[in-house]
Amino acid sequence: MATSSAWKLDDHPKLPKGKTIALIVLDGWGESAPDQYNCIHNAPTPAMDSLKHGAPDTWTLIKAHGTAVGLPTEDDMGNSEVGHNALGAGRIFAQGAKLCDKALASGKIFDGEGFKYVSESFEKSTLHLVGLLSDGGVHSRIDQLQLLIKGSAERGAKRIRVHILTDGRDVLDGSSVGFVETLEADLATLRENGVDAQIASGGGRMYVTLDRYENDWEVVKRGWDAQVLGEAPHKFKNAVEAVKTLRKEPGANDQYLPPFVIVDDSGKAVGPIVDGDAVVTFNFRADRMVMHAKALEYEDFDKFDRVRFPKIRYAGMLQYDGELKLPSRYLVSPPEIDRTSGEYLAHNGVRTFACSETVKFGHVTFFWNGNRSGYFNEKLEEYVEIPSDSGISFNVQPKMKALEIGEKARDAILSGKFDQVRVNIPNGDMVGHTGDIEATVVACEAADLAVKMIFDAIEQVKGIYVVTADHGNAEDMVKRDKSGKPALDKEGKLQILTSHTLKPVPIAIGGPGLSQGVRFRKDLETPGLANVAATVMNLHGFVAPDDYEPTLIEVVE
Ligand SMILES: O=C(O)[C@H](O)COP(=O)(O)O
Ligand SMILES: [Mn+2]
Ligand SMILES: [Mn+2]
């Protein structure tokens, strides 16, 4: 790869090149006051705890939510997509949620190519809307769906079918019923106004449709069967009844509801996707839409038997993979995350190893590189994916593949073949999302053991470590009232928090290779995840580009 002058980074005036840097992202690892719902505090985490002694010079907290990561408001919790984008790109980009809000508020969404394309089906065929039904704001938002439905009806959609995926992961478990009721009320109003609008199918997000990184195609297939073929093990006359009934099944919660279809009086599915129809997937976040998009768009497809491949007009809310140009039609242009730190470092000869297990593999590669799959320079980079367990909820295996990730990172560090060894350790997040407090404690302990393994390797090669997280999760597992006390529901029960949090995340630097006098600056007002890229570039011996968010470190004599 010839390095053009545009990519050439200046040498750092004080920091040397050639140190091996371990860059560890603990997924879902925020900082919160200790109490019984703080699983990180309650787990033995000696490696992470020891870092706090370095505060404030080598341990500090940074922002991982809201506007610091390009989300619409300070009430928006962070998430992996925006978190890893910020970590890797070193700048704050207005993210999907915000871009869609703007396009909907101005009405521009309806003037774009994508909407025009799907609206050509409105006259004779059905508009299907498929996506996650909640106000979580991580993958989608119900208010955006409502505006999309309203705008489509106003622009001629006569027959609308919504295929819902219930959440309980970015929002409280059990909240699905309320969201379905809200949507049903909207659709009833439309019906009064002559639009034939109904919910057509559904299922829990983790069991139906929203898999990611090809962990389990069966998940996508279940959605396909319900949405396209109109087939599912459960049939109901309406969706509120469906969700209420299925939640009573043993072990079912919003995230894992089995697939269902809505049928008419004669038992026929009310909304299979057929030739000529329009399909809009209303999630703005990419990772959990890519597999579904491939099934909807690719003529050649061998991941499961689609039985029928309808000729549809399909558009994503956003384009989900910029490299694959998938889907080819979309309603809102995605953030253009360019000139990421990974691309710069590849142009400047930095050899990079990145690793996680399947469920987070794309986080340290695809998201890190600005929603771009593949290598920048395959001679300098190696990305290793450790297969995740599939078909389980991770409280059953809370240790996940943390130690395997630690081992791969250790081996990569000791091999001397890499300058940057980057990992995502998923446990705090993936187990935190199950709401199982005991399992989350075990998860945090396993994550810490992996961290320790990487620290030991860094010690041996006299390298540097940077440890941080993408957003909070495991540090607070209960919904709280405004005063911070656990909030009780109407029946006086605690409400377990399965979602991320608004908490800051720790960042620590250290290791024998860290130059004398390197410490965190104290002059940055609200440092956040986007400040990490410049920091890491400095530790590799480079000055970050001018438009990057400022480095977190300074070198004092
Ligand atoms: O997709 C998920 O699992 C959650 O909605 C968000 O979790 P993540 O942002 O940590 O991936
Ligand atoms: Mn995450
Ligand atoms: Mn998460």
Protein model, in words:
Residues 19-542 form the Metalloenzyme domain. GO terms for molecular function: metal ion binding; phosphoglycerate mutase activity. There is one protein chain. With 557 residues, the chain is an alpha/beta fold. The chain has 17 helices and 17 strands. It has helices spanning 39-42, 46-51, 80-89, 96-106, 113-119, 142-154, 176-192, 217-227, 239-247, 290-297, 341-347, 358-361, 363-367, 402-415, 427-432, 437-461, 532-539, and strands at residues 21-26, 59-62, 127-133, 159-166, 196-204, 234-236, 260-262, 278-281, 313-318, 330-332, 352-357, 381-386, 420-425, 464-469, 505-510, 518-520, 553-555. Bound molecules: 3-phosphoglyceric acid (3PG) and manganese (II) ion (2 copies).
Alpha-carbon distance between the two ends: 37 Å
Task: Let me know the largest β-sheet.
Answer: 8 strands, mixed
Globular, elongated, flat, extended or rod-shaped: what is the shape? globular
Which molecules are bound in this entry?
3-phosphoglyceric acid, manganese (II) ion
Low-confidence stretches are none
Number of helices: 17
What integer is the average pLDDT? 97
- Main structural class: alpha/beta
Tell me the number of strands: 17
Strand order of the largest sheet: 6-7-5-4-3-8-9-10
As a whole number of angstroms, the C-alpha radius of gyration is 24 Å
Q: Percent of residues in beta strands?
A: 15-25%
Question: Helical residue percent?
Answer: 25-40%
